[in-house]
Every structure is written in C-alpha cells, then in structure tokens.
Write a structure and sequence with these properties.
The structure is a homodimer. Chain A is about 40% helix and about 20% strand. Chain A has about 400 residues and is of the alpha/beta class. Chain A folds into three domains: about 15-85, Winged helix-like DNA-binding domain superfamily/Winged helix DNA-binding domain (Arc Repressor Mutant, subunit A); about 90-205 and about 380-390, ATPase, nucleotide binding domain (Nucleotidyltransferase, domain 5, 2-Layer Sandwich); about 215-370, 2-Layer Sandwich (Nucleotidyltransferase, domain 5), CATH 3.30.420.40. Chain A binds a DNA duplex (30 and 30 nucleotides) through helix 1 and helix 3.
DNA sequence: ACGAATAAGTCAAGCGATTTGACTTAATAA
DNA sequence: TTATTAAGTCAAATCGCTTGACTTATTCGT
C-alpha cells in the first residue's frame, strides 16, 4: 500500500448511485405527498416520464409501491396513482433507557405492529444484552406469526440510547450510562440477530420519528427538542439528520442557560429528571406517568414552579436554536404523556422575537410533537427505514457513510 | 398545468450529475491534498483508474489541472502528479460593509490578483450601486490587463454583507443596513456586469475563506465565529456551508449570553462595535486599526476590560457552539488586524469542558483564523469558486439549489 | 546483470441508467 | 364528431463508469 501520507477525498459517484438515489426520491415523494401518478412523479422530481416509469415498475416488483384506482381529473388519459406499500419493509426499534428497554416493530409507513418492554439491570450491560436479545427474539416471533415472508424484509435494528457518546470525562451529575457505552452492544446485537444495527441518541431518534410521522413530516430544516429524563435536540438540517463530527450534535441539555440569578445546564432545570427530583417520583415506577399527571391536573404548586423555571430556560433554548439553526420550525417532544407538555409549551409562549420572516411563515415557530413514552422507540425503528429509503448525499456516493 | 396541490419532492439525478460531481471531487481532492497522481485519485475517491483518467484528461483540456514532474516512489511505473492550475478560474469578491466597500479578484487557488476599496454612502443604495459598479469595472480592467483570455474564466461575483437578511422587525440597536437589503442589488450587479452574482452574510463569507485557504482547510465540520463590526458564525456542516431555511443560520451575535448580572446579545459585549464604543474610535476612520492597535499594545485599561467581558461571553458562545454543532474545531476570525485577536483568544482559554473526545483529537478545539480587514472580501470571492467547483449534494442533482 | 514483482496508466468492449422522440391510449371540451 | 390534452409505452440513442486485458517503467532479489 502507498499510504505514507493518508489522502483525504470525498467519494465519487456512478450510475448505480444515481439509480439508488432516484428510487429513494420516488419513495420520499410518495411518503410526503401520498399517492402520485408517474407523470406527477416525473414533474416533481425532474426526471423523465420514462425514467420514472422504469423506477416505479422496479419498485412495484419489489413490493414497495402499488397502484391505486384510476383517477380521472380532466382531459387526457386517466392517471394511475401509486402509493407506498406498508408491508414493503419492516424495521425494529430498540430503546435502551435508564430504567426500561422497549422494542417495537414498525412497517414502511410507520404502523406499529408489535411491541414489548423489559426492565434492564442498569449496571450490567452483559446481562442487559441477554435481556434485550430475549426481548428482540420474542417480539420477532410474535411479529413473524402470520407473516411468512416478512423476515426478509426487515431493514434492520435501530437502537436509541441517551447520549452523549464517546465522552471521556463525565460530569457526575449526569447519568451517562457509561457501562453501556463501553460495551460493544451493537456488535453483540448484530451477531445475536443477524440484522444490521445502527445507533443514535434518543433526541435524534425522536427527531427521526417526528420527521417520518409527526410534526416535522416533509420538513427539511427542523430542530426537535426532546424532553426525557435528560434533554437533547435532534437536528434536521438540509433534509438530513445531522449528528456532527463525533455524533454528539444537538446536546442542548448541556448548554448553559439561566437568568439573572445563575447559569446552569438546561437539563438541570427543564428535564423530567429535575421534575421527578422535585416531586419525589421514582423514574423506575411503572405508574410514574399516572402519578405525575394527577399532580399536574391537581394543580400541584411544585409542578407549577417547575413549569415556570423550565419554560424560562426553554424559551432561551428555543431562541438560541432558532438563531443558530434558522429552522422552519422548532418541535418540542417528550416521553411524558398527558397534560404536562401542553402546559409547558403554553408557558413557553410568547417566544422571543426571531430573525426568521414572519409574513411568509406558514408553519408555527414552536410546535408540540409527540408526547408518548414510545416516541423514542418509534424513532429508533424509523432509523433503519430512513437509512434504507430516504434520499441523502451519502446514499448517492460509491462509499457510503462519509 | 396540474398544480391544484403543489407536489413537493427532492430532485432526481442522472449521469450528467455524476460526471459533474466526480469532476468536483477530483478538484477538491487536489485542493485538499496538493498534487496527486491519477492512481492516488482513484484510490482516494473510490472511482476506477479509467474513470479518473478520463476526468483528469478533461480537466487538463479545460486548463483546470496540469501535470507535474514524474515521481519515482518505489517499485512500479513512476506516477504523474496533477495539481490545480491557479489560472484555471477567477472570481470576484465584493464586500459591502457599513462604511467601506471592498472588491477583490482571486484565482482558483486563492491568490489575490487585484483589489480596491471605496467609501459607500450608507443610506443610498442606488448611488452605492453606481459606486460599486464603477469599482468593479475598474478592478476588472486592471485584472484583465495582460490576461487576454481570463475574462471568460471568471466564475462570478460573490457578495458579502452583514446579515441577517429578510428580517422584517428590526432591533434598532442593530444596524441592519435595511435600505441595502430592500434594494435589488444582486439583479443590478448582474445586469451591470454580465456575471453570476451570489450573496452571503459576512460570517459565512469568512467561513468560506477559512475553508478554502485558512484554518478550516479540508475540514468538514467547523464553526467559524467572525468578529467584525457585528458578530456572526459561518457554519460548515457535513462538508458544506449551512445557511438554514431562510439564509440566516449562525447569527450567534443575536444569541443571549451573559453571566449572573445580565443577559445580553453576544454582539453587545463582544463586537468591534462595542469596543469602538468604549474607546471612542470612529469606524469610518481609515486609521482605526492603527489607533486601536496602539491602545492594545499600550495596555489601555478600557481595552483590557473589554477583552475580559468579551472573552467571558465568547467562552460561553464557544461552549454553546461546540455543544450544539459538535464540530471538529471552532475558529475565531476577525476583520481587525494586529494584536487584539491573539489577546482575546488567550483570554478565552481555558475553554469549558467539552463533550467531544479529547484523546483522539488532533485539531485544537479553538483556533485563531484570519485577522485581516480583507478576510470577508476574500471569502466573498471564494463563494463563486465554491459553487462552481466544490462537491455538494445539490450539484449532483438535476435541479440545482434545493 | 537479469528476471520477477509491482505499480501507473491505456485500450476497447461492456453495461447500467437516463434521455429522446415517436407512438398509443383514453379522456374531456367544443 | 372531432380536436385537444395528458398518461404512459416502445425502442433506439447516449452518456459515463466499469471491466479485464495489456503496455510501460521502475525496483527488488538473486
């Protein structure tokens, strides 16, 4: 090898890549717009009718799209709309959280087909991997029952864990799940399941879910602030999930905010961990959400105070995110169901003035996204589908993942 | 037309696009690595020897690359390195600042070939456009003298102005150059020069310059904080300049920082405008930099206090940028020459702990970039070259600019 | 000194995917 | 009833990368 000095260069492209890209563009267009005819697709993508026709035929043979009824909409031959076939692909999501693991199976359009949970021993990843593999195996057999050929259509396993990843010096006040992070979980899962495994942090997973099914559907520039036990932001920049040079972009929970009195990480005042600390709720308690919602609905004073403090910092966080990323919208999502998040978002308003144009704006600056304990698991499951079917720069190049 | 509901889709790709992309990849590799042989290029890009050979032959015929002397480096046939030809393309940069306009001509590798300045009447864009067009015409004739065929090789005019753009409600404390912004300057310049004209804000221009020639050379993830009369950040994310949904990403000068006492936009405490306010220097004074440097070198107390305040806020700004963008490095650039910036950067250190890995790090977390009144103009000139010759997702697609 | 090994680069045919332009089909509008 | 409009197909052309064999030039080992 001639590698005295290592040569850095971007990857070239070839026809195979353009074909793959165009297939993804077709799928993306159907996902965003619903059913479209080949002529519509040709106009929307800039490809020729013939190219689209070939692509659609291939996709139909692969079972990824199917035709609907003829549509007569004026002069000319009626058009045949095509839509995505939900059963065209499946994906497994695995969320490893501090106190619980969740596994979920979704199809190409995001329908949930199976799910299961397990408690994970927090300090033993070896044992935890066994638990998780059992959980996966159970859900897979449940899923496979009555779906003879579905196994081959599983795009992979998406794993979501709290970030940040690869951090050497830990702040003791943050629970970094370091034992999990040093454990080669992905290899173990890949070996144990025979499927491709990918990893993202929980905020990125939530953003992936919001983009596939939620408030960021069809948007190319969005910041998704995820409030879980910790806080992070999933970044959709230029139509792609952005994860930074080391995979830790968007760790807004570590950013210092605060008012006149003090300067603290966002996470210290606006995370569910901080709320649970105030209320004395055990995050391992299965009934935590019911207890919390009772307190919220009961007008508990401590909840009100937490909301006020959290909203203050989040207002700054939204301002910072808007100013730095200039997104189409900011989405606030959470794993906490019920009435907490609507009250929190109401307390954040009114937002600080923003730079972005207001007159031409059709999307609200701040929107409530999913408030569902399964949001991250859904996003984890969406990740393999995104990787396999969404248009992206790297997917068009010869060597992937650059 | 069948446009009842507008259909959104990403653009398809074709062979023409892959060819264009591969040409850009070759040029980029030569820019980042210096001279490379065809075999080196083939290995680095993942393309075949034959594909690279054809591309290099085309580029050589177009006058963009040229061969160097044979290199014997071991067994096997000696290789022929190719390098970029400086005279292969030219570009014009125009910086419109609050008190001065600068025009500069650079070549493909960033050599400065001509430059000129003019005072711009700040409140009259019509008159200002005339001044700028005269300036451009003068520099163009100076540049064309002795370069017979160079005119046809001008990639375009890059314009840099202070942002943000398209803002409706202005904060009176910020000088937004609104009169300039509502004026159709780009059209006027395009009509008056017959060249393609593009626009970016001054921080983005500075980042473009740092990436082509400076501290971000060859990096794909960098945040470039530009301290000029105002403050902004140019973002290089995933190998491309990121400008957000409305072109205003990176406006870090508007972000609220501050310590226990108060919360103010970064710009209020760390911009040159704030320093000049303290020192009573007139930003329209041609001798401003000499006066400032004398005060800095003379140990002026007010300068020391400003540095302390600015460094405090900038330390927070760097922390925020590192946490949200997870870049390879943060670069601090300025239009102010002399000893101010080295002292400021020294005052910012030590940085707050970061999430990014420290063991594997080869690039410093914070680096001093250009400190040159011409930095933004150079970046403005680099923009047309970037658009024409750098690999990017949009350049591979059929319809550009999405 | 000489042959083997190694590597750069070329040649010519092949191939994959889009494009082109003509054509067919089917509906509405006049 | 006919012209017009639009969807979709057919077959050939084209573009750019790939493949595999080949040539050339240099160093290494004996």
């Amino acid at each position: 090898m001639n590698e005295q000095r290592s040569i850095r260069a971007k990857s070239g492209a070839n026809q195979e890549g353009t074909g793959a890209h165009n297939r993804r563009v077709i799928i993306d267009a159907l996902r965003v717009n619903g059913a479209l005819s080949r002529a519509d697709l040709a106009r929307a993508t800039g490809l020729t009718k013939q190219a689209v026709s070939n692509l659609v035929e291939t996709l139909e043979n692969e079972g990824l799209v199917a035709s609907e009824e003829l549509v007569r909409k004026g002069r000319g031959q009626p058009s045949t709309p095509y839509r995505l076939v939900a059963e065209g692909a499946y994906s497994i999501g695995l969320q490893i959280d501090r106190h619980v693991s969740r596994v979920i199976v979704v199809d190409l359009v995001g329908n949930i087909l199976a799910r299961a949970t397990a408690k994970v021993p927090p300090r033993s990843p070896e044992e935890g991997a066994e638990v998780v593999l059992d959980l996966l195996a159970g859900v897979r057999t449940e899923f496979a029952a009555g779906r003879p050929d579905a196994e081959a259509r599983i795009a992979g396993i998406g794993v979501a864990m709290p970030g940040p990843f690869g951090v050497e010096i830990a702040d003791d006040s943050l629970w970094l799940m370091q034992a999990w992070q040093s454990f080669p979980l992905l290899d173990r899962l890949a070996a144990g399941t025979g499927l491709a495994v990918s990893l993202q942090n929980d905020a990125a997973a939530c953003a992936t879910a919001e983009r596939m099914l939620g408030a960021a559907h069809g948007l190319d520039h969005a910041v998704c602030i995820y409030i879980g036990y910790g806080i992070g932001a999933g970044l959709i920049l230029g139509g792609e999930l952005y994860s930074g040079a080391h995979g830790n972009a968007g760790e807004i929970g570590m950013v210092l905010f605060g008012g006149p009195d003090r300067l603290t990480p966002l996470e210290h005042r606006a995370s569910i961990a901080s709320l649970y600390g105030v209320l004395g709720i055990d995050p391992a308690d299965p009934g935590q959400f019911d207890k919390l919602d009772a307190l919220v609905l009961g007008g508990d004073r401590r909840v009100g105070e937490w909301i006020a403090r959290a909203a203050h910092d989040l207002r700054l966080a939204v301002h910072t995110a808007e100013t730095l990323f200039d997104p189409q919208t900011v989405i606030l999502s959470s794993g906490v169901p019920g009435s907490l998040m609507p009250r929190l978002i109401a307390a954040i308003e009114p937002l600080r003035p923003s730079l972005s144009p207001t007159a031409s704006r059709t999307i609200p600056r701040l929107r409530l996204g999913m408030t569902d304990p399964w949001a991250v698991a859904i996003g984890a499951a969406a990740d393999p589908i995104r990787r396999a079917f969404d248009p992206s720069f790297s997917a068009i190049l010869k060597r992937q993942g650059e």
